[in-house]
Write a structure and sequence with these properties.
Structural class of chain A: mainly alpha
Number of strands of chain B: 0
Number of helices of chain A: 8
Helix content of chain A: over 70%
Largest sheet of chain A: none
Order of helices and strands of chain A: HHHHHHHH
Mean pLDDT of chain B: 89
Strand content of chain A: under 5%
Radius of gyration of chain A: 21 Å
Oligomer: heterodimer
Number of strands of chain A: 0
Radius of gyration of chain B: 18 Å
Shape of chain A: flat
Low-confidence stretches of chain B: none
Shape of chain B: globular
Structural class of chain B: mainly alpha
Low-confidence stretches of chain A: none
């Protein structure tokens, strides 16, 4: 039992290490690689299950990469499997960032490094702002939703509201509103 | 010891409330690491981490946990504690979901919650962009030129890694 499980765990660690190593940009950029590795190459998850997995990974808090690893790991080898898969996904970026953090502290005062980052900072802001419109269209958000989005943006950006508290409030209100709406429909 | 506990709590919160992943988690991370009471990073530092995250593999929540954990404590263990803390809530929650996966799939209450959370996630991404539009990140008119160029290039779906490298090289040339 144990002997047959060990190579599987090792195989899973290596597969998720590869996913963690080669998914630049994070989030949706890693979907094709995960699909190829775990659906096509290993067959750990079926094609249809994979899309359900993505929906679940997005509706749970935390990075999509971690959520997918936990799900696949659990399916293949239970709780141990999910821990091994998560370690595999996390370790590459952990060591790369550790190296950069250690390096950057020494080089921060270098004028070229500072100029490099001075050019990058406005670019980062643009990269966050630009996909907003296509994202709200893809999510099918109407005027009511856009009003809520604008309110959340203003409260967090200008009124210093805690995003965690707001997320909690929105979740509870949506649930109460949903139940109320359902009751009303059933009553009518 | 207190600093390790603070790191753990801050990143546990980020992992627990980080719905939507990626950019939607930025205001949450910023609130914890740039905002009071910790003020572990400046706004410019924080923007640099976002840029580094774009250029390196892995989710931004994990990248910022490792970076902040290391820089705040100056120790490998700070990075371990923060990274572990940010992974713990998703690990536990996703394990529960995996276990009760079939039940969850047909759960209408989750649909109700997500009807409201989706716009909130868009709002959080907008908040991330708004809070980063300040004098730390926009030092002069050249910053605005870079912003507009990258904004258009992103709409045209140019590879983000290429854009960051291009912006960085422009920075070295013009500053």
């Amino acid at each position: 039992m144990k002997a047959s499980k060990m190579p599987k765990l090792l195989q899973m660690f290596l597969t998720f290490f590869k996913i963690g190593m080669f998914t630049l940009g994070g989030g949706y950029a890693m979907v094709p690689l995960i699909q190829r590795e775990i659906v096509e190459k290993r067959g750990w998850v079926k094609e249809t299950e994979f899309f359900e997995l993505l929906a679940l990974a997005q509706s749970s808090p935390g990075p999509v990469a971690v959520n997918s690893s936990v799900f696949v790991g659990y399916k293949v080898a239970g709780v141990t499997g999910s821990i091994v898969a998560t370690l595999g996904t996390t370790l590459p970026s952990f060591f790369i960032i550790l190296l950069i953090a250690a390096w950057l502290i020494g080089f921060r005062s270098n004028p070229h490094v500072e100029a490099f980052f001075r050019g990058i900072r406005p670019a980062v802001v643009a990269m966050i702002a630009a996909p907003l419109f296509s994202l709200s269209r893809a999510m099918g958000i109407g005027w009511k939703g856009l009003t809520l989005a604008a309110a959340v943006a203003m409260l967090v950006a200008f009124a210093g509201f805690s995003p965690a508290v707001l997320i909690g409030i929105v979740a509870i209100c949506s649930l109460v509103f949903g139940i109320w709406q359902k009751r009303r429909q059933q009553g009518a | 010891m207190q600093i390790y506990l603070d790191l753990f709590i801050a990143f546990f919160k980020i992992g627990l409330f980080g719905f939507g992943g990626g950019y939607a988690m930025l205001p949450l991370i910023q609130h914890e690491v740039v905002g009071a009471p910790h003020k572990w990073l400046s706004v410019a530092d924080f923007t640099d981490i976002v840029a580094i995250s774009q250029m390196t593999p892995g989710p931004i929540a994990i990248n910022s946990a490792t970076y902040v954990g290391y820089t705040v404590t100056g120790s490998f263990w700070g990075a371990v504690v923060a990274t572990f803390a940010v992974c713990l809530p998703p690990l536990v929650i996703m394990l529960l979901i995996s276990k009760f996966y079939l039940k969850f799939r047909e759960n209408h209450y989750m649909d109700m919650i997500f009807a409201g959370l989706k716009p909130a996630i868009v709002g959080l991404i907008a908040a991330a962009a708004l809070t980063l539009m300040n004098s730390h990140n926009f030092v002069d008119y050249k910053s605005i030129v870079i912003f507009v160029a990258v904004f258009i290039a992103t709409l045209l779906k140019v590879d983000p890694i290429k854009l960051i490298i291009f912006a960085g090289i422009s920075g070295i040339v013009i500053y």
